[in-house]
Write a structure and sequence with these properties.
Elements: H1 18-40, H2 67-84, E1 87-92, H3 98-107, H4 110-114, H5 122-131, H6 159-167, E2 173-180, H7 187-192, E3 206-213, H8 229-238, E4 241-247, H9 251-277, E5 286-292, E6 302-303, E7 306-307, H10 326-337, H11 341-344, H12 353-356, E8 400-402, H13 405-418, E9 427-431, E10 449-450, E11 462-463, E12 468-470, H14 474-486, E13 490-496, H15 504-517, E14 529-534, H16 551-556, E15 564-567, H17 572-584, E16 589-593, E17 598-600, H18 605-614, E18 616-618, H19 625-628, E19 634-639, H20 641-657, E20 663-668, H21 686-693, E21 699-703, H22 707-713, E22 723-726, H23 737-743, H24 748-758, H25 766-787, H26 792-795
Parallel strand pairs: 1-2, 2-3, 3-5, 4-5, 9-12, 9-13, 10-11, 13-14, 14-16, 15-16, 19-20, 19-21, 21-22
Antiparallel strand pairs: 6-7, 8-17, 18-20
Family: Belongs to the XFP family.
Protein name: Xylulose-5-phosphate/fructose-6-phosphate phosphoketolase
InterPro entries: THDP-binding, Transketo_C/PFOR_II, Xul5P/Fru6P_PKetolase, Xul5P/Fru6P_PKetolase_C, Xul5P/Fru6P_PKetolase_CS, Xul5P/Fru6P_PKetolase_N, Xul5P/Fru6P_PKetolase_ThDP_BS
Length: 800
């Protein structure tokens, strides 16, 4: 919805009566009971008989400590939703509180709708408990299988970033984001507090952070748990938030206090948005809540004489010996019966009607929210025709162009086509302060950088209504984009290649999410996570060794083959073709690796489409086998823009100096095609692999990344030992472009020498050519030091 209304508006006062409190406490008891039952029980799940050891699961897996707090917040958010008709998304940073969220979505009815086998009766509760953290069941975290979730929380630190991504361009959405005080110690979460500098109340939804301070991590106290309220409030205030502290260990006092804090926060958000959308931007800060409650609240106070509640000992399973320790078993039964399950569930095992009525209706339930199943909201991306941006290629390898600049022009027009009248939209570019540096600056023709803080006369392209997201944190860029995609929009994350490694574990987690999402028919497809790696290792010669690292390719290769794709376009038109494909795709992670500097251009748009569709092809114009009418003596292969230039230069040297040598030149753009079809959907079949590389000819392969990646990919192909790969070998410094390939032994001269060693026969002129290459390498070493630039025959080289 983009009608300009603020978040919620039905009844902002929110009176909370004693009867409301009693109902919420009972619902909370039901949620806590089902949470404990999921962790412990495989049978007798409603305690209709005395608890016996055989009712207990053989392996106790799950997290109790954070769950009561998560359930309490859920209960009060349900009341807020019913009262105000707000669309609310629940993001739980302590994702290991999975049983609490499963319990909550079960109580509201969503879980049984998504999984009809988990019915709303005793049989359903039995299945709900038996499936939790067991083989063939569901994971212990708030995983992709949990309705209402866009955030698992397994790897801590990303909750607030995901919440922000979901709120961008969803003006009527409230994202309640619970942040554990352990998670709050991580670097990504610490950076995420800067959200008020980027969240626009005119066109975005709202994020309500709830910092849940229960005092302990898995093995010790937390920083915020041992910090004063004043210090925590001062920190959050300095980040742009207006915090309210709610604390206590008596539920009858904490529930009303948290209800009031949520009501006041909702009112403040509504007022802030209403003023902004009326054109009146004030200095008001976004509300936040600091909630201090005991860890493992309502659970065992002590176990074996040792304090548990409120300590790290409540983090996971507070009673661990219940199958063998009779005292523990009795304590568990006493704990579970304290919730009064017989008064919460009727004789059939269904939640009693007065508690069932506490849930919002339909898609207003947080487990049913379409914002948590973003494919339901996703609109097709109107990618413009590529002919508008394509370069005209009269002859391959004779003209230079900054390869990524055409993509910036395409993204500019995507912004224009997807921007709504209220200034929102459904496409965004996320980049760590490098949009113009990465030659994508054309987007600033139609929008600015998003910035909610003061702007000066000498700033470039900053405005509150800007929609290019630049923040000097790869974690935030990746996290914002993930939340943006999972709630139904499209985007691109562009980063310097070496520093995208900062966020690689986030990409791994997102891949795992998509891998399981495709097996859930109720999860609608979402737009793919597209990552552009530019400012690459080979052309960061001006920055030095710290900026030179292609390791993200290696991190992605082993991941789910149904999800990941790695693209290495050699020029601008192939980049356009690949980008068009990636931007239209769903449920994938696309890694696009291409440099931003001027590079030689090779293919027309038509040829680029054919090349990218195939994933690899023989460039007949570059080899000599067609003219010779004979099979190649050596195959020259390349994947990546700089490797392509060097392999072509090597091919030209071989043609000129050893004219009777028959060469074939192969270019690979879809790296995963090197795998067999049984290992990856894009894998080249046996016929195509032979058509590219023959059955037994040696292949000299120039590769963008670490050479071991290619050896890994071709394992199982015919005679893999015949592939001789040159790639990045961790040699770098601040130097010239050609010196980088020389340092890593991937220069045209090294490739020629390798080809001469691997050819079927020694062609005429081979010795002389080898001597020439060695002299050129020696000359390069002297020239680059004396002149501080590359030799003219290298820097001015074009294909001929």
């Amino acid at each position: 919805m983009t009608d300009g209304r603020q978040v919620g508006s039905k009844d902002p006062d929110g009176h909370y009566s004693d009867s409301d409190l009693e109902l919420d406490l009972r619902w909370w008891a039901a949620a806590n009971y089902l949470t404990v039952a999921q962790i412990y029980l495989q049978d007798n799940t409603l305690l209709r008989e005395p608890l016996r050891p055989e009712h207990i699961k053989p392996r106790l897996l799950g997290h109790w400590g954070t769950s009561p707090g998560l359930s309490m917040i859920y209960a009060l958010l349900n009341r807020l939703i019913r009262r105000t008709d707000t669309d609310c998304l629940y993001v739980t940073g302590p994702g290991h509180g999975g049983p609490a969220l499963v319990a909550a979505t079960y109580l509201e009815g969503t879980y049984s709708e998504v999984y009809p086998g988990v019915s709303r009766d005793a049989a359903g509760i039995h299945r709900l408990c038996r499936q939790f953290s067991t083989p063939g069941g569901i994971p212990s975290h708030v995983s992709v299988q949990t309705p209402g979730s866009i955030h698992e929380g397994g790897e801590l630190g990303y909750a607030l970033a995901h919440a922000a991504g979901a709120a961008f361009d969803h003006p009527n959405l409230l994202v309640a984001c619970v942040i554990g005080d352990g998670e709050a110690e991580t670097g990504p979460l610490s950076g995420s507090w800067k959200l008020p500098a980027f969240l626009n109340p005119e066109r975005d939804g709202a994020v309500l952070p709830i910092l849940h301070v229960n005092g302990a991590k898995i093995a010790g106290p937390t920083v915020y748990g041992r910090s004063s309220d004043a210090d925590v409030e001062a920190f959050l205030g300095g980040q742009g938030w207006a915090p309210t502290v709610v604390s206590g260990d008596d539920p009858r006092q904490v529930f009303p206090a948290l209800h009031r804090a949520l009501t006041d926060a909702h009112t403040a958000i509504s007022d802030l948005q209403r003023e902004a959308r009326a054109g009146r931007r004030g200095a008001a800060k976004w509300p936040a809540i600091v909630l201090r409650t005991p860890k493992g609240w309502t659970g065992p106070r002590t176990v074996d004489g040792v304090l548990v509640e409120g300590t790290h000992r409540a983090h996971q399973v507070p009673l661990s010996g219940v199958r063998t320790n009779e005292a523990h078993l009795l304590q568990l039964e006493e704990w579970m019966r304290s919730y009064g399950p017989g008064e919460l569930f009727d004789s059939a095992g269904a939640l009693v009607p007065d508690l069932e009525r506490l849930a919002p209706q339909g898609d207003k339930r947080m487990g049913s929210s379409p914002y948590a199943n973003g494919g339901r909201l996703r609109a097709d991306l109107p990618v413009p025709p590529l002919e508008k941006y394509a370069l005209t290629i009269e002859k391959p390898g004779t003209t230079h162009h900054e390869t990524t600049r055409v993509l910036g022009e395409l993204l500019r027009d995507l912004y224009a086509a997807t921007t709504t009248p209220d200034g929102g939209g459904y496409f965004r570019l996320f980049c760590p302060d490098e949009t113009s540096s990465n030659r994508l600056g054309a987007v600033f023709d139609v929008t600015d950088r998003c910035w909610q803080l003061p702007v000066t006369d000498y700033d470039d392209g900053l405005s509150a209504r800007g929609r290019v997201m630049e923040v000097l944190s790869e974690h935030l860029c990746e996290g914002w984009l993930e939340g943006y995609l999972l709630s139904g929009r499209h985007g691109l994350f562009a980063s310097y290649e070496a520093f995208a490694m900062v966020s690689v574990s986030m990409l791994v987690q997102h891949t795992k999410w998509l891998q399981h999402a495709v097996d859930l028919p109720w999860r609608a497809p979402v737009a793919s996570l597209n990552v552009l790696l530019t400012s690459t290792c080979w052309r960061n010669d001006h920055n030095g060794f710290s900026h030179q690292g292609p390791g993200m390719i290696d991190a992605v290769i082993p991941l789910a083959p149904d999800v990941v794709r790695i693209w290495l376009p050699p020029d601008s038109n192939t980049l356009l073709s690949i980008s068009d494909h990636c931007l239209r795709s769903t449920d994938h992670v696309n890694l696009i690796v291409v440099d931003k500097q001027p590079h030689l251009q090779y293919l027309t748009l038509e040829d680029a489409h054919a090349h990218c569709a195939a994933g690899a092809s023989v460039w007949e114009w570059a080899g000599t086998e067609t003219a010779a009418g004979a099979d190649p003596d050596v195959v020259l292969a390349a994947a990546g823009d700089v490797p392509t230039q060097e392999i072509l230069a090597a091919a030209q040297l071989l043609r000129e100096h050893t004219p009777d040598l028959v060469t074939r030149v192969v270019n690979i753009v879809d790296l995963m095609g090197l795998l067999t079809p049984t290992e990856h959907p894009h894998g080249f079949d046996a016929r195509m692999f032979l058509d590219l590389f023959t059955a037994d000819t040696d292949v000299v392969f120039a590769f963008h990344g670490y050479s071991r990646a290619v050896h890994e990919l071709i394992h199982g192909r015919p005679a893999p030992d015949r592939f001789h790969v040159r790639g990045f070998s961790e040699q770098g410094t601040t130097t010239t472009p050609f010196d980088m390939v020389v340092l890593n032994r991937m220069s045209r001269y090294h490739l020629v020498l390798e080809a001469l060693r691997r050819t079927r026969r020694e062609p005429a002129g081979a010795v002389e050519l080898a001597d020439f290459c060695l002299r050129q390498l020696e000359r390069h070493g002297e020239y680059v030091v004396a002149h501080l630039e590359d030799m003219p025959e290298v820097s001015d080289w074009t294909w001929s």
